[in-house]
Structure formats: structure tokens, C-alpha cells
């Protein structure tokens, strides 16, 4: 669902802009301390802003809001003193989100914004305005218009607003794809969405159906999708920057897990474990969303996005524990647990990328293991990488984008956990080693050759049960901003 809030720059004063727009709400920033601003909009108040902040024991923390009423023009409007902390990108992202939530049900809000990362402020405001709903509209609609005023002026602000809007809309697309119920969202539906995005974003697309997957040896996808009446797909999106990329642009391949519903297969999950499994293709949704924004952001690398899409269901045709799968390229894996299916489909896509696409860097993103969630909680993704420079680039991008990662080791001593008596490797890791997210990453490493490769396990931050800052309930779109920041760096 598209974000309905619109953000634009404005000139002049907060008061005059509020009158021109008919805005019901005006807002001025408060830095840590708190440090009350010199705000012309507060001239008619019978007290000072310092007195108001002291009354509410405000601290100017990002996301904090103190409200009062003020006469602007011929009407009374709400005045918000909103905390921006030290005005770091993270502070401004949180502050923008707080304003957008406070503005729900209003047609317009005018905000002064301090110097800093205006794109982060825009991202926070737009992503906090996101909602996915089927049925009746919510009691309060999202804020209609947010007009921002900075010292730089609207012309200087326009690029930052465009950047923040592009990243927010890509993240919202990732959320939409993951939040769509699985009754509607099967692999063919996901492929159709990718085709739509390709047409709108200047990409080329190829979708492999079941027969092509069998004929070309994508054994992991075929096996995982074999239990469903709705067959698997391999989605391939390609972006070419043309002359903007230079004579030989760097080639990056992004791979996303696209399990459109995960019942666990014959190793059936309990009911509680299935409730959020419509979002088990969140990694694939992130890849499609990132691809959608590359041309508008002027990314200079050549980028290929692969989404390995399948539905993991139990039936008479489902893969069984003990089965052996031949993946793309010939590596075989023994299935010890059909609920460790994500790595089976990713393995095919990674092996294909290594053998056929010749990337300079290979990055996969997946809601892969509960172990990563146990280790790092709900805020950080687990990062595994075969290349230190790539790991550092992604770590910096995550910090800048507000999507932090924590690098975990590829422990060589744990490699024995994925040995198999009958195949090259097994898919779940034998007992005695622990480190479930590590053994899953070691499994994936078997399929990437010698290329620089990174694996982002987003099982923790990929979905949320509550609202906080720019995060909304359900799918978070985690990874879209990180990867876009990395690709545009």
C-alpha cells in the first residue's frame, strides 16, 4: 500500500506556511538540554518556551513531544515542541517518526527542522506513516502533508527530500510484499509483482517456472516447492546503469529468500510458529524493493536480483527427512529437517549466481534462523562474510541507514556439523555444535565459490510486533535501506 503522506520543502516562516497550507499543527525542534529555540510562531504565547519545557520536565530527547496551543493567523493551532537530541541521523529519523504519528488525522503539519540529515528525517516520517490494512480504513488517516523548513531553503532541501522519499518508498514496498497474506501471495504472484516493478523501474526480468527449474537442475527449489499445489519460481531482475556506470561497472548480485509461506513441510511447525510465516519471504521482498529504486537513485553498479520463491507445504509430494537433493551445479544435500528449507532454495540461487552471473560481490538476505534472533534479539541482523572489506562496507551502511548488523564468525570447527553420511552436506547441522545461525551460513558458503560473499540473517529485525520510531507492526522492510545505502555509497 503506498504511503499517503507527502513531504515537501517550504520557505518563509512556520507561521506563514501554516496559514498558506491551512495546517492544523506547527512544530519546532528542541535539542538536548533542553535548548528551547527562538521560534517566531510562539510570539503570542503568554509564557516562554523554556517555561513550557520546564513544566513538562522535557529533555529534548529524540521523539519526545510537548504540546500546547497557539494562535497563528486567524485560528488556534497545535504547537509541538519535538525533541531532536543532538540531531544525528538516528535522532532525526526518530523525531520525524514521532511527528508523523502525532499528525495522524490531520491534513497538514508544518515543521522547522534543524541542520542535519534531512533525508533521515523524511525517512522516519514516511515510514512511521506506513500502514497495511485489509478492510475498513483506520480511525485516523495518515498525516496528509508535512511541510519542512530548514535554514537551507526549499531548493537546497529538494535532493534530500527526494532521497529520503525514495528509500522510504522502497522500504514500504518490501513491507507490502511481506505483509500480503499467503492466500494471495504464492510464488507466481510474487513473480508478477517483480514483473510489475521491472516495468515501472527500467529493469529487465526473467522468471523461471517449474519445468525450467527441473530442466536446469534447480533441485533445492523443486524439492522445497514440491509439497505445494502452487509451484516454485526463480525470479531474476537486472539493472544496467548504462553510461552512468562507466566502461566496466561493478557487478553486484543480491539473493533473497522467497518462501511465500512456511508451514515447516513434513517437519511441521506448531500453530504459533506459523502465524508470521507469510513474512518468510521478507528477504526476497527486500531484493525486489531495492531493485525498484536503483534507477531513481542513480546507482552506478550493475545489479542483478535473484529471488528463490517457493511455498513449503506438507503433502504426499513433499520432500521428506532423509531425502537427498542435487542443487544447481551438482552439490548434494541431505534433508534432515524440512523446516530448514530457506537455505535449500538460497543454495540454488547462490550457485547459479556464482556459475553464470560472474558477480564482483554476492550478498544474500533471508529470515533464515531462529538462532540469529536468540543471539542478537530484534534490532540487529546477523552478518556473515567471507570478505572483510565487504563486511565493513555493509556494517557502515547498516549504521548509516538505521539498520544495524553484528558480524558473527564463520567458525571452521563447526563445518563438521553439516557433514552427511550420504551426501556432500546436510541441511540442519548435527547435534553437539550449537550455533544454528553459524552452521546455516556455513551451508550457504558451500555454494558461493571464491567470490566475496555476505549473508544477512534478518530473522530478528525482519518483523515487529510493536511500533517504535520508524518501525510499524508486521514486516519492517529491514535490509532495503541498508542495501540501498551500500549501493549508493
Automatic annotation (TrEMBL):
It catalyses: Release of an N-terminal amino acid, preferentially leucine, but not glutamic or aspartic acids; Release of an N-terminal amino acid, Xaa-|-Yaa-, in which Xaa is preferably Leu, but may be other amino acids including Pro although not Arg or Lys, and Yaa may be Pro. Amino acid amides and methyl esters are also readily hydrolyzed, but rates on arylamides are exceedingly low. GO terms for molecular function: manganese ion binding; metalloaminopeptidase activity. Keywords: Aminopeptidase, Cytoplasm, Hydrolase, Manganese, Metal-binding, Protease. It is an enzyme of class 3 (hydrolase). Its EC number is 3.4.11.1, 3.4.11.10. Its cofactor is Mn(2+). Residues 337-344 form the Cytosol aminopeptidase domain. PROSITE patterns: CYTOSOL_AP. GO terms for biological process: proteolysis. Binds 2 manganese ions per subunit. It comes from the Bacteria. The keyword Cell inner membrane does not apply. Mn(2+) 2 binds at residues 257, 262, 280, 341. It is found in: Cytoplasm. One of its GO terms (cellular component) is cytoplasm. Its main location: cytoplasm. Mn(2+) 1 binds at residues 262, 339, 341. Belongs to the peptidase M17 family. NCBIfam families: PRK00913.1-2. Presumably involved in the processing and regular turnover of intracellular proteins. Catalyzes the removal of unsubstituted N-terminal amino acids from various peptides. This is Probable cytosol aminopeptidase.
Amino acid at each position: 500500500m503506498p504511503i499517503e503522506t507527502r513531504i515537501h520543502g517550504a520557505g518563509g516562516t512556520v507561521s506563514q506556511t501554516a496559514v498558506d497550507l491551512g495546517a492544523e499543527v506547527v512544530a519546532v525542534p528542541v535539542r538536548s538540554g533542553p535548548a528551547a529555540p527562538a521560534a517566531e510562531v510562539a510570539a503570542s504565547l503568554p509564557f516562554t518556551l523554556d517555561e513550557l519545557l520546564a513544566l513538562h520536565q522535557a529533555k529534548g530527547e529524540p521523539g519526545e513531544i510537548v504540546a500546547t496551543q497557539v494562535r497563528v493567523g486567524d485560528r488556534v493551532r497545535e504547537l509541538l515542541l519535538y525533541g531532536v537530541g543532538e540531531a544525528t541521523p538516528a535522532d532525526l529519523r526518530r523525531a520525524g517518526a514521532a511527528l508523523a504519528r502525532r499528525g495522524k488525522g490531520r491534513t497538514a503539519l508544518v515543521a522547522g527542522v534543524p541542520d542535519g540529515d534531512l533525508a533521515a528525517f523524511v525517512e522516519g516520517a514516511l515510514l512511521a506513516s506506513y500502514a497495511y490494512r485489509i478492510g475498513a480504513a483506520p480511525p485516523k488517516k495518515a498525516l496528509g502533508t508535512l511541510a519542512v523548513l530548514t535554514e537551507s531553503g526549499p531548493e537546497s532541501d529538494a535532493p534530500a527530500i527526494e532521497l529520503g522519499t525514495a528509500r522510504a518508498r522502497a522500504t514500504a514496498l518490501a513491507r507490502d510484499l511481506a505483509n500480503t497474506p499467503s492466500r494471495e501471495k504464492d510464488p507466481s504472484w510474487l513473480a508478477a509483482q517483480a514483473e510489475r516493478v521491472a516495468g515501472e523501474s527500467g529493469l529487465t526480468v526473467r522468471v523461471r517456472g517449474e519445468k525450467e527449474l527441473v530442466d536446469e537442475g534447480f533441485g533445492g527449489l523443486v524439492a522445497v516447492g514440491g509439497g505445494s499445489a502452487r509451484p516454485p519460481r526463480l525470479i531474476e531482475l537486472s539493472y544496467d546503469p548504462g553510461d552512468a556506470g562507466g566502461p566496466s561497472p561493478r557487478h553486484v548480485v543480491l539473493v533473497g529468500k522467497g518462501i511465500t509461506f512456511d508451514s515447516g513441510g513434513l517437519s511441521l511447525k506448531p500453530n504459533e510458529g506459523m502465524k508470521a510465516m507469510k513474512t518468510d519471504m521478507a528477504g526476497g521482498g527486500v531484493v525486489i524493493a531495492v531493485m525498484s529504486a536503483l534507477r531513481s537513485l542513480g546507482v552506478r553498479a550493475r545489479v542483478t536480483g535473484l529471488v528463490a520463491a517457493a511455498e513449503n507445504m506438507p503433502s504426499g509430494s513433499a520432500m521428506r527427512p532423509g531425502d537427498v537433493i542435487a542443487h544447481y551445479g551438482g552439490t548434494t544435500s541431505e534433508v534432515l529437517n524440512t523446516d530448514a528449507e530457506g537455505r535449500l532454495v538460497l543454495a540454488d540461487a547462490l550457485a547459479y549466481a556464482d556459475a553464470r552471473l560472474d558477480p564482483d560481490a554476492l550478498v544474500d538476505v533471508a529470515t533464515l534462523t531462529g538462532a540469529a534472533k536468540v543471539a542478537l534479539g530484534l534490532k540487529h541482523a546477523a552478518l556473515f562474510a567471507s570478505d572483510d572489506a565487504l563486511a565493513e562496507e555493509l556494517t557502515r551502511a547498516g549504521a548509516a541507514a538505521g539498520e544495524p548488523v553484528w558480524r558473527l564468525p564463520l567458525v571452521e570447527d563447526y563445518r563438521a556439523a553439516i557433514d552427511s553420511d550420504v551426501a556432500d552436506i546436510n541441511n540442519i547441522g548435527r547435534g553437539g555444535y550449537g550455533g544454528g545461525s553459524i552452521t546455516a551460513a556455513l551451508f550457504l558458503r558451500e555454494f558461493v565459490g571464491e567470490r566475496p560473499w555476505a549473508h544477512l540473517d534478518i530473522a530478528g529485525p525482519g518483523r515487529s510486533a510493536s511500533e517504535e520510531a520508524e518501525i510499524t507492526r508486521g514486516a519492517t522492510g529491514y535490509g532495503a535501506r541498508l542495501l540501498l545505502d551500500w549501493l549508493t555509497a
